[in-house]
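Predict structure. Chain length: 518.
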Amino acid sequence: MKYFYFLGWVLFITTLNAQNSKYWIYFKDKPENQKPDLSHRSLERRFQQGILLDEKDYPVSTFYIQQLENFGFTIERKSKWLNAVTLYADYQDIQKLKNLNFIIQIEPVKKWKVYKPAINHHDKTAINYGASEIQNKMLNIEYLHDKGFKGAGKLVGVFDSGFINANQHPAFSHIYNSNRVLATYNFVNNNTNVYTLDGHGTNVWSCIAANVPDTLVGTGFEASFLLAVTENVFSETTAEEDNWLAAMEWADSLGVDIINTSLGYNIMDGGLFYTYADMDGNSTIITRAADIAASKGILCVISAGNEGNNDWKKITAPCDADSVLCVGSVNSNKSRSSFSSMGPTFDGRIKPDVMAMGGTAAVASTNLNYSYSSGTSFSAPIITGFVASLWQANPNKTNMEIIDAIKKSSDRASNPDTLYGWGIPNAARADSLLKGFTIKKDSPFQNLIIYPNPAKDKIYFENLPPQTFITLYDFSGKQILHTIQNNRELNLMGLAKGWYWLKFSALNSIYSYKIFIE
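Prediction complete.
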């Protein structure tokens, strides 16, 4: 995790000369003896992951806010995580604020321009998962779904630009019929109506939440949801960074487990811009906020960006954060989508982290029908539902343990790069990693991965030492088979349901592993 301290004054001259611009006003401290504004669910998330409350969990000083209001300012947003507020001011106002001893820094609020590729509309298909079969089975998500893990009990926040007709679409009727949209907020219009402004969020949400058998099925459709509008596409095609941060703190206070953000930012409005050097995990406020969220036990899934064909090419904020799951896009043949942003971060870290199908992904459309769309906007929510289902299956794991298992389960984990990251995750392998087994560091089996468990007709091995002898016993101690294994799979067809022991022997070492055959 990264922790940030705001020292000194940062003033952008071009913005200071503008009248009535929006600014961040940072305070020097917080009053003591305040209570955190956190729900029981939010406190429970921290407790389960062993996370203590800190100063970021306590409210901004009402005394400092009152002082600003006495000067005639109207507070737009409050951020307990940054110990700051936003307000509109002109150059003369800023000079007055600089003289107040409880203010340590002032900087302008950025407006981000957003690039989204065109939506491609096609007729849907209907086989098994329906139109979503390829994008779902690419992750082996059916392994979790078949065991009843479909995201139930996890609270997922979806931050986007609008959810037009989502509350009318049959893809989401099961969500509304079971009252699993727990809260909504429009941070652009400052009301609870999120079914307005834009339909991008409707497309995105369906990759997680849709459940129309043989038509469209999301990867985590039994989860509960918070829906937030953070981006104003109607008037400015920009998103103000304080909206996104406010949504993060709102979702945290309600006990969110997972955040999906299918919006990435790199260029600001009004002639200001960040450079690639700012994609270092430190520089943008939304990146700072994403890492703070991770420190609170929230797992943030972020689109890598759609800049692969543009001059920028690199990932966009907040995907440069070190504690988020940054998701790039592949096509149905598992090759990287040309538009998918690439890494590394400016400080040399591998990004994206993982990949999913964002090239011609199946989605619910705002006309109450179904279509296909392309962008990392859709690979990210496919992974978000994957996270919800996997975390449901492993409820005692932390957000960072879930991220680590997902990366290690991916098909390029042995050789990650800045185009594919660790690759495409596998649900069975990730689940086996999280279930865990301990092997001595000097053992030839220390990197062994066994999946799935429970198994049906086959079991697979990764990093199995050459010339390994495998013996299978039932729980009475009867030997079922004994073989030398050079392949990465073992046929279990015809074996009765129940518990078995696998014994591995190689290089004068022995390792035993318990497995259940369904």
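Summary: The longest helix spans residues 376-393.
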